[in-house]
């Protein structure tokens, strides 16, 4: 097969700025966003909490006070904990829409065409997503049990693009979805001198997926 052009930064950052619970995503039937309440007043509180958490986490990190999030959202602490019993439940809600986009992309690139290119495109998308969602990357790398819904969805999407590449002999036959996910984590976690260096590292990682002979 010919070489695949690798541009890690080719996915626009703007796609990750979509609110997880915008009017677009509220029409989705994906289980990742199904936790949003149906009742109007509960849905408003849910959205307000998610918006406040995004603001607070971006400013102060994931260990920010849940009481501060409740205050900014204009709800009581009891309301916040009713929707999100754990801090990690709130992080999952924050990233649900972004993860859904990555999972949908796996389906859209798989099918006709080069299965290795499909795997490459999906990995590139995943790396960009994790680069802007550090909590998700850390959960994938160190504590997968923290965000089970998101991580199970990402692993399922990884299998969607990996298995056709294995069947075509385009990648090593013993590769597992977990191997590919950890490759993406490693590429995403590193600090690069510039985009050109990041692209070289990604290209080298892709070559490592190929069969030994």
From TrEMBL:
Q: Which SUPFAM superfamilies match?
A: Homeodomain-like, Tetracyclin repressor-like, C-terminal domain
Q: Which UniProt keywords apply?
A: DNA-binding, Transcription, Transcription regulation
Regions recorded as binding DNA = 65-84
Q: Name one GO molecular function term.
A: transcription cis-regulatory region binding
Q: Give the matching Pfam families.
A: TetR_C_43 (PF21597), TetR_N (PF00440)
List each copy of the HTH tetR-type domain by range: 43-102
Q: Which PANTHER family match?
A: HTH-TYPE TRANSCRIPTIONAL REGULATOR BETI, HTH-TYPE TRANSCRIPTIONAL REGULATOR RUTR
What is this protein's record name?
TetR/AcrR family transcriptional regulator
Please tell me the species this chain comes from. Mycetocola lacteus
